[in-house]
Amino acid sequence: MFKSGTPLTSLAITAGGLIGFFVLMIGLVGVNAVLLQTLDGLSKGSAYAMIALGLTLIFGTLGVVNFAHGALFMIGAFCAVTLSKFLTLSKEVVDESKTDFLGNPLKVNVPYVNDLFGEATGATIIDWAVPLSLLFAIPVMILVGIVMERGLIKHFYKRPHADQILVTFGLAIVLQEIIKFYYGANPIPTPAPSAFSGSLDFGALIGMDPNLIIYPYWRIIYFVFAALIIGAVFAFLQFTTFGMVVRAGMADRETVQLLGINIDRRFTLMFGLAAAVAGLAGVMYTPINSPNYHMGMDFLVLSFVVVVVGGMGSLPGAVLAGFLLGILESFASMREILDVLPGINQIIIYLVAIIILLTRPRGLMGKKGVMEE
Amino acid sequence: MSNSRLTRRGLLKTSALAGAGLALPTIFTASSAAAFTNEPTGSSVTLGFNVPQTGPYADEGADELRAYELAVEHLNGGGDGGMMNTFSSKALQGNGILGKKVEFVTGDTQTKSDAARASAKSMIEKDGAIMITGGSSSGVAVAVQGLCQEAGVIFMAGLTHSNDTTGKDRKANGFRHFFNSYMSGAALAPVLANAYGTDRKAYHLTADYNWGYTTEEAVKASTEAMGWETVAAVKTPLTQTDFSSYIAPVLQSGADTLVLNHYGGNMVNSLTNAVQFGLRDKQVNGKDFQIIVPLYSRLMAKGAGANVKGIFGSTNWHWTLTDEGSKAFVKSFGTKYGFPPSQAAHTTYVQALLYADAVERAGSFNPCAVAEALEGFEFDGMGNGKTLYRADDHQCFKDVLVVKGKENPDSEFDLLEIVEVTPVDQVMYAPDHPQMGGPEATLGTCNAGA
Amino acid sequence: MFGLNKKDFNLFLIVIALTMLAPFILNPFPAGSGMAQFNAGYPDLMQRFVIFGIFAIGFNILFGLTGYLSFGHAAFLGVGSYGAIWMMKLVTLNVIPAIIMGVIVSGVFALAIGFISLRRSGIYFSILTLAFAQMSYALAYSVLTPITGGETGLQIKPTDRPIFSNLEEGEIGRANLFGLDMRSSYELEVGNWAFTFNTGYYIAAIVMILAFYLSIRIFRSPFGTMLRAVKSNQTRMNYTGLNARPYTLAAFVISGMYAGLAGGLLVAMDTQVGPERMFWTASGEVVLMTILGGASTLIGPVLGAGLIKYMENILSKINKDILHQWFAFLPDGIEDFLVTIVYPFIGKGWHLTLGIIFMAVVIFLPGGLVEGGKRFMDFVKRKKSKTPPSDESAQSTPAE
Prior knowledge:
Structural class of chain C: mainly alpha
Largest sheet of chain B: 7 strands, mixed
Largest interface: B-C, 75 and 61 residues
Structural class of chain B: alpha/beta
Radius of gyration of chain B: 22 Å
CATH class of the largest domain in chain B: Alpha Beta
CATH class of chain C: Mainly Alpha
CATH superfamily of the largest domain in chain B: Response regulator
Distance between the termini of chain C: 34 Å
Radius of gyration of chain C: 23 Å
Number of helices of chain B: 12
Oligomer: heterotrimer
Strand order of the largest sheet of chain B: 8-7-9-12-13-17-18
CATH architecture of the largest domain in chain B: 3-Layer(aba) Sandwich
Distance between the termini of chain B: 34 Å
Number of domains of chain B: 2
Order of helices and strands of chain B: HEEHEHEHEEHEHEHEHEEEHEHHHEEEEE
Shape of chain C: globular
Strand order of the largest sheet of chain C: 1-6
């Protein structure tokens, strides 16, 4: 049927494997638990998929190993922190009825937004800081991406991968140290709008007992958001002329240049786009876990694994691998599994990566000759 | 801030052997004439403050360092004296230690045992530090404690909560003021029984490393003793950042209480995730669902924001305590830095003072003499009430605070409220308790080096 | 001499001189002076310089020659350390069997991992090695706690009684070489200078010299040429009927054994192991050391290791008080200003400086520190040859 090694084969194998796996799991732990963990895997996988998508755009278009990609995710998250700090910029009002820890009258902070819009509207604006930051983060991240590419990465296209690793790793350290200098090392709580707190009871929706399958609203939003972003990136590359040229450039840069097309400028914009995708993933992630300066490093290694498992140079591969690893990670953390295989939750991602790379030489959907030397 | 920094070595040379070459065999120290490692011979004495300055605990480390600088200031007679005025022992005069001016060196543990030992070694070998103190994790505490034992200097542990530090890994040269997992469990259990009843089904999420194991064991033992049932205990990797897949199945299990045996970043994230799932709005077995965090830290609670509200936990010390010692400490720390101290700052400040006091009482910097002075030492006025430094395992025994996340905080520091001060008798255990390494655990013998 | 050509022999002599005279070279400032902060000539750091030098030399045999970028080399360092410390806890406190044990254990481990990982090349290979190392780290930290000690690691305890030892009751075993304690030192004081000669350091240094010699021989051998062929064009090599796998696998195992040697030495110098030694950042560190110094050069990795360890141990210890002392001679306003400027880069900000140095080196000195050294030497030579040296030549950029 399929020629071996085509992306379709790998899709078929993955799908077949997953179905078999699900049947096995349902038999083992019951349908509720499987539904719940699948849901969780999808939401976890969204973050992996979005970061990996940007990373593989940079690999695929520019051939650069970007160790600063995690830092872009982190900067995105701190866009949200910065905006909510900005919105809560306050004047100090002394409250004589209370005292602070030294026994002096307590100074209460009243945000300026409250003065501008009145207390109720002001509070709502602050409450919606995270979604608002999306608007703020898009231009910032595109700018950061473009400056990074023009100012630094551009000079490293022809250099060995080792040099790219060193310079982007150095950049990642510098960026996170700057954030640490201003925001400290502790995580900073950045909650979602209160309208989205709490969780949706899926079980009750489809007529099961309540509390069996519940999942937080914000994580569901995160998944939908990720699906939209990923869809938009694919549509952009597939259906616009710009995207077509970029894809042509990815396949054969020199020919495209010979046609008199300024591919460099388009690649710069792609870098900006990749930065924006990582940044938006970061903004939306802040309510899930309080951001801190090293959150990018925490995701860095994982997103590299995701990209490589997906296959170098393949955008669908990166997305597929992101969701796949997310789901497997969720399943591996179930106590029914841990009872049989203690510690499997510690290594599942790496174990799966090894198995996939050994059975499929270029990951799930990798292209021949990309980053193989 | 322009004191000249003469090291012990520098003085040695200026005083004795200017210009002459000399070779002497020594171990771990610069001078064989000394009776013990890094014996201070000049007019000053150097202490080594080894705290995490990079990595996830950097803010906690920074607070520890602030406390140490304050302690040095007070020991040298500067500032308002802080807890030296309320301390029950009056040996400290504010003229340094044994008349020698206190100086210090700092280092970065990076919260890695290798880096922490490298940093501590450089303090001992290069700077001639006579005592090492600080740290923010049990892995580091155990590693550095082992090093100090070998080198023959005193180790005054910073923030370390695992039973092992003064349990199976206890050392003759190491001392801990901070409380431990066992005490957390013992202090929490009665309060929880009061608040939530004795018929609860608990689900544990436990950080998959030594501290997590000892905490889970302690909390399990003491809650089961009062009638709770443990439904499940699931281990989570230290490097985990998203705990959703561990929290999602909790409700399905039929448990009505979630115990998060996590610290630091793990705790912030797992608690945030649990609240996100809306667990606290749920009803299970006809009871409100509850979450418990055995070890609280105000600095970390800040990272979890509003999620900590109403959640029980234990802590070593909190700045809202109203005894004289705590008030004096909060005042001098707050005046100098502009915000109240954390429990990490408190325990390190107290450790520095306790060490200095022990040297004064022993009349010598010799680690063995200092250890002897600390062993069985009873004191008061340091913020935790009457306290005993037990001789058998070098662990401090004092009241333990059970706290709860505050519902309506007045300020960004006002996150926890004290629910109960559990008296020391309730958290006492035998030195050869099975959770503490059993009868095999031994301090070994004191090592003075040289 | 020793089968080395003249240039290599000179380099080898320089390395011997540098390591043997390290206590002098690393302590250029008199003790007690403000600059003493920058002295690195104390036993622990000197030991780390040479041990991580060995680690990086070994890494370079794989990466520099074959181009295979292993991102999990710290696993071999860690496994070697665990092997060595168990040898000391159970069999003998003599460091030689422990070090040999470390080398053997990591050699076997490298053989297994290399056999599997080398089925792929490029980034696929890097991720495979990374995956194995991360698995080792995660398991050592958690499930394997009974063997590895988990978070708190392994140390020699008073209850440890190795078979070949005659310790008294309650005495803690010490690492030694036929009775010579690793921690013993001789102190030489000349005027205001103090120089420390540490037994452990010299043993580690001799091992490093041997390791360095071996690496020169490997670089210059037919085997080394074969490895370079793998790097330059593996396909062409395959067409000539040569199978590259055995060569790369041999390089991988040798490189793993170097890491095990470094791990064993770490334990010999400081009898303690913790699992962080295997974390991916540790693997990344040796990659950075090698590239920073100059990959595929002989001396580069050692220089890179030295620079990173120096920054880690010296910069991180400078605090605000010390800054104030340095600038104390200035008027108060300027003093505070300078302290404010410098403060973010030292102490808790040492990572920032490290990041900036990584970027600066790779931007301005492609080819690493060795390249920088070469440029400097060229510059000096050219300046000498020109008579009289004009200011212009000093300012012109070196261009051929």
